[in-house]
Amino acid sequence: MARNYDWKTGCDVEATLSVIGGRWKPVLLFHLLKETRRFGELCKMTPNATQRMITLQLRELEEDGVIHRKVYPEVPPRVEYKLTAFGKTLEPLLLQMREWGESFKQTRDIK
């Protein structure tokens, strides 16, 4: 089922933010840059996010074609997430966001 995009301005920045915007999506994408991750790993890497929120964010990213979800028919279930080829195009943006965040924290003396 396709997501409903309610773009108010039609601006391309708004389109980008509709896909990667939010508190946890960029963090989850950053953790998926280098390797495939299991759901439990992503939860441990984002301890302040609830499992439900992580699930919702991952579902939206999957619907947008940014990540791929693979479910293994095992008990207990094993689910892995990885970036799609389209999702990998976000790497320069995510790395630049990290650099900007580092600079911002230094200018504000935030640890």
TrEMBL record:
Domain HTH hxlR-type: 11-109
InterPro entries from the UniProt entry: HTH_HxlR (IPR002577), WH-like_DNA-bd_sf (IPR036388), WH_DNA-bd_sf (IPR036390)
Keyword DNA-binding (UniProt): yes
Assigned keywords, A-Z: DNA-binding, Transcription, Transcription regulation
Pfam family, one: HxlR
Protein name in the entry: Winged helix-turn-helix transcriptional regulator
Species this protein is from: Glaciecola siphonariae
